[in-house]
Specification:
The protein is an alpha+beta fold. It has 14 helices and 10 strands. The chain has 2 domains: 219 residues, Serine Threonine Protein Phosphatase 5, Tetratricopeptide repeat (Alpha Horseshoe), CATH 1.25.40; 135 residues, Jelly Rolls. 36% of the residues are buried.
Length: 384
């Protein structure tokens, strides 16, 4: 390895002192001159270095690209385009070349061409994601951009998963999240990205787009929206893959919900454990009940002590955490074998979504863990 080989990329001007004939060092120096925008005073030097580099190595894409940028700034668009096209012909891996094509296509309002070069840039340069992903996420708000971008992603480019992950977390609009999840076929059983569907549903629901979130839930569960039960997984026997329509269960050291077998062995229940002085909501689920009067029944066990020390059964208006409580009652005292409970709750007309929740009270670590299961709703009276 020569001195020029070592310093060609890090200090090309130093490499040229040792090897004035080194074409790659010249192209690197020319590229460095053009970094951050080529100053008018440096254009002649950049052209000189790039042309010399191409004479030495005609297949140097960096030199061809620098020459194209210099010609652009010198107001020679045809020569600039010829040089940039030549650069991409040599190699599609040069990021500034792809950015030049993107800018040209955007100025011409040629969305398909711009997206082709976004795709090429992101396939070959992982570092480009930091710059280009936010642009594509914002652009996805526009259906005329979102649809052709989805068509590109259907071919499974290497950057697809990382992009959709970022879009779910940062898109300010619901439509892109909804469309990408559906059109790219993501589900909670996806072998590579099983988290995309749950994240999308939760993001949409928390953002107030409950209808879209519920539609994704129904699609993932392979049922119609009208067939979705009022309470999902009422006996805690199934996985809760898709909160908040499935259970959101805490998993902290001092506040945790534990799915466990019922003492009589007749099924499963949710244990509500709170310790170290920590009280709080252990589990909750978003309901979509129509206005009216309902009977809410369940089976609870291992509850003892004063009312203030026992868990509470809460129904409140949603979708955001709300202090408007429709129901807030303590679990009754119940033995380990369990006890059936039943109460009524009225859903008012202006309460389109509701939270069903269990609030646990702190207890000693070695005390019995209260549990609940067999939740059921029955409509007694329609709202007026």
């Amino acid at each position: 390895m020569t001195f020029a080989d070592v310093f060609r990329s890090r200090a090309p001007e130093l490499a040229l002192r040792a090897a004035p004939w080194d074409g790659l060092a010249k192209s690197q120096w020319a590229s460095r001159l053009s970094t951050g925008g080529l100053k008018p005073s440096l254009i002649p030097q950049a052209i000189y270095l790039a042309q010399n580099a191409l004479r030495r190595s005609p297949v140097d894409p960096v030199a061809a690209r620098v020459l194209g940028i210099a010609f652009t700034l010198n107001n020679h668009p045809r020569a600039a385009a010829k040089s940039i096209v030549y650069s991409e012909t040599i190699s599609r891996r040069d990021l500034p070349t792809q950015l030049w094509f993107i800018e040209r296509a955007v100025q011409a309002n040629n969305i398909p061409e711009a997206l082709v070069h976004y795709d090429r840039a992101l396939r070959v340069n992982v570092a480009a994601r930091d710059t280009l992903f936010p642009i594509l996420v914002a652009a996805s708000d526009d259906p005329t951009i979102r649809r052709p971008l989805i068509d590109i992603l259907r071919h499974g480019p290497s950057w697809q998963g990382a992009f959709v992950h970022q879009l779910i977390g940062t898109s300010i609009s619901a439509d892109p999240i909804y469309d990408y999840i559906i059109d790219l076929g993501y589900t909670s059983r996806d072998p590579v990205h099983p988290d995309f569907m749950p994240r999308a549903i939760r993001r949409l629901a928390e953002g107030g787009e409950v209808a879209k979130a519920l539609d994704l839930y129904a699609r993932d569960r392979h049922i119609s929206r009208s067939a979705i039960p009022w309470i999902r997984n009422p006996d805690f026997a199934d996985d809760d893959r898709l909160p908040p329509f499935d259970w959101l269960i805490e998993d902290q050291v001092d506040l945790v919900g534990v799915k466990q077998a019922r003492p009589d062995g007749s099924g499963m229940a949710l244990g509500l454990r709170a310790t170290e002085g920590k009280d709080g909501i252990v589990a909750r689920q978003l309901l979509l009940l129509q206005p009216g009067l309902y009977e809410l029944s369940a089976r609870v066990g291992d509850t003892a002590g004063s009312e203030i020390s026992r868990p509470r059964l809460i129904v409140s208006c949603g979708p955001a955490a709300s202090t408007e409580r429709l129901l807030n009652i303590p679990f009754p005292e119940a033995p380990s074998s369990g006890r059936a409970i039943s109460t009524n709750v009225r859903v008012p007309a202006k309460c389109a979504q509701q939270w069903l929740a269990f609030d646990a009270r702190s207890a000693e670590p070695d005390s019995a863990v209260p549990w609940i299961t067999a939740l059921k709703l029955r409509r007694l009276q329609e709202g007026k």
